[in-house]
Every structure is written in structure tokens, then in C-alpha cells.
Amino acid sequence: MSFFELPLLSFLEWYIMWYFTMALSGKLTKKLVENLGAGRHGDGNGLYLVVDPSGARRWIVRVVVKGQKNKKGAPLRTDFGLGGADIVTINQARERALEYRRMAKQGLNPRFNVTREIPTFEEVAQQVHIERLPTWKNAKHGQQWINTLRDYAFPKIGRMPIDSIDQPEVMMCLAPIWTEKHETAKRLAQRMKVVLDVARSKGFRSGENPVTLVKEAQVLPKVKVRVKHHKAMAWQDVPAFYAGLTNRNAMAANALRFTCLTGSRTTEVLKMRWEELDFDMGIWTCPAERMKGYEEHRVPLTSQMLEIIEPLKALKSDFVFEGQKRNYPLSNMAMLMLLRRMGVEGVTVHGFRSTFRDWVSETGNGQWEVAERSLSHKVGTKVERAYARSDLLEKRRALMTQWSDFVASAKLNLE
């Protein structure tokens, strides 16, 4: 039987099958959807995959609404979001795009005639977490971000549609831990606010953020938080302690000596690489991604610092302070455990920064601003910092030399 001899019903069935096959096929494939770089990638028939610089992927469809004009009198062409590519498959996107085009051809604006699928709070939070992973300082910080929501928000409101969350639901999450775990509660509030803000920006919510409303209403009690400072060694005791470290050959002892002399943070020291060191200029440049303030920090190297690190070149490791595993840095706990083995109680590694600061204040060696810059602290207001471009390197070199001389002064009295 030829095509022209098909019964009418068979012809209609064939045409419907052909129409849907053509409508639901396009240029993109599942593999392309997963691997295409940043930009807008067309699938055909007004459907696009949008890949953000962060790697987040979402579908949009562009339609022209029949009989409707924009302010300039041209046909009304509008883009509509169809959801993230991690949730909406390519075939689902094509089906939704086809539905939107049908409505537009009938003169119906999809914006007012489609019931959108509202995601849950947990779905939006997980998507925000994925989209922001490249912006976090490290993977650990990113995991902590989602863990706070997982532990304190998801059990209560995780399955709720994001548009149904209001002040009572926010209070449900915050109130139980507001006084007992206040710092955690503040972080939870900030992260919930971000999720709800993102949901609003994507059209899943409207109105004021309920987290903001809860804060402004001051319905949660004020909590006085005692600032817990890192336990520090008295600066007068440092030379004798440092002399004891000098007699130890362990890598942890080398790292702890260097930390004492530089006043740097633990991670800044332990993850230091050889390419960060300029021996000719006598400078260690710690990159911004490893600094607490996300700004590059230059540390002047004194003779005592060089005595510690120069012999370590022979190890030919990527890291200056190599751990037990080849080409891996020393463990974060190595220096603290060394303090415990030495019987030094009530002192933390981070506390040596405070020790240095106390020494500067009490001995009158150096100006306040120079000491703060040595600790990579921000000094002054944003406006003041905008005009104060210098990092006072040479003044800091002189101060760090005085500090190094003081710290190592007891070494000569060991015999």
C-alpha cells in the first residue's frame, strides 16, 4: 500500500507521530548538555541551554505571542525559564518548550497561563550550593555551607515548596538553636536568606525575604556572645620555647618555628609552595585564595626564617613543609600535637599571632599599623584603604627582623 492509499485515520496517526518526533528532536544531545561551555546553546524551535560561567546549566524557551505587541509595536518575544538542566532532562525541556509554543500561537502568554512547578526549599538549596562551589575558598567551606542547612533546616522545611516558606517556618528553624548554638543559628539564618533570595530571583517567590522580616521584628532574644580568643603564650616565654624547638628535627618543629617567626596562620604556612618564595628579594608571597581576607600577602623573610626553609629544598617536594605522604603538606594538627608532646598546655598555634602583637605593644617596637599589616589585618575604613595602597613592606621587614632576633635570642644560651 502506497502513502496515498493510507486510510484517513492511519494518515492522522502518522502525522501526529511525525509532528511530535520533529518537535521533540533538536541539535543538542545528553552528552552536549553535560559538557558544553559557558554561553547560550540552541536546540532549535526556540529552546536554549544556558550555561553560566559558574557551570550552572538551565533551560529557557523563546516564544512570540500571537497578536501581542511590545512597547515599540513589534511582536512580543519573551524568554521563559524551564528549570535547571540537572533537574529537567533534555526531553522534558523539549516537551515544556512545545507546550509554551502552542500557547503562544493561540495568543496566550505562557507567563500567565502556565502553572509552574515550584521546587522545594531543599532542591533550591542544593542547586545554590552547586552553583556557588567555584566561588568558595575551599571544598571544606562549601560543604560546611550545605551541612548547616542539612542539619537544621532540611528536617523541618526541606520538603516544603519554596514559595510557602514564611516567618513561622524561619522561626521553626532558628528558635531551637538561637541561644544554645547562637553562632550556628546566625550562619543558618544567613544561608536560608541566600536560598530564599535566589528563589525570588528565579521567579519562584515574591515579597520580602522572611529571614529579613524576622530579624527586623526582633522576635528572637538578644544573645550576648563572649568572644573566645586563642590561648597565647606570654611573649617573655617565647625565646626559651623557641630554643627547645630548635633542638628538634621534626618537620612539625620546622613549621612551628616558621609560624612563630612570621606570625602567619596555620594553613598559610603548611600549604606554602616553593614558587611562592623569592629568595633574591627575601619575600614570601602568600596567594589570595589561601588568605583569610582573600588578598595576596607579602611576608618579608628574615635570616632566621631562611635558616629554617633553605635546607628543606633538598627534599624536592612541591610543598616547603612536606608531610608523611610524598608531595603532600604537613597535617593541620601536626604543630598542635607537637605542642602537646612538649608538654605546652593552654597554648594554640594561632595564639602566636597574639603573642607577636603583645610583644609589639609592650616593647614599643614598631607602629600599630605596621604590626597590623604584618598580621595581614585590614587597617582603616574602606575609603582609607582605597588611598593607602602601600603594604609597608620595608617597615614590616625591619619589625619582623627585630621580632626574629628576639625570638631566637635564647638559642645562644643553650650550651
Automatic annotation (TrEMBL):
GO biological process annotation, one example: DNA recombination
GO molecular function: DNA binding
UniProt keyword annotation of Nucleotide-binding present: no
Sorted UniProt keywords: DNA integration, DNA recombination, DNA-binding
Gene3D superfamilies on file: 1.10.150.130, Integrase, DNA-binding domain, Intergrase catalytic core
Domain annotation Tyr recombinase: ranges: 228-400
Similarity-based family: Belongs to the 'phage' integrase family.
Name used for this protein in its record: Integrase
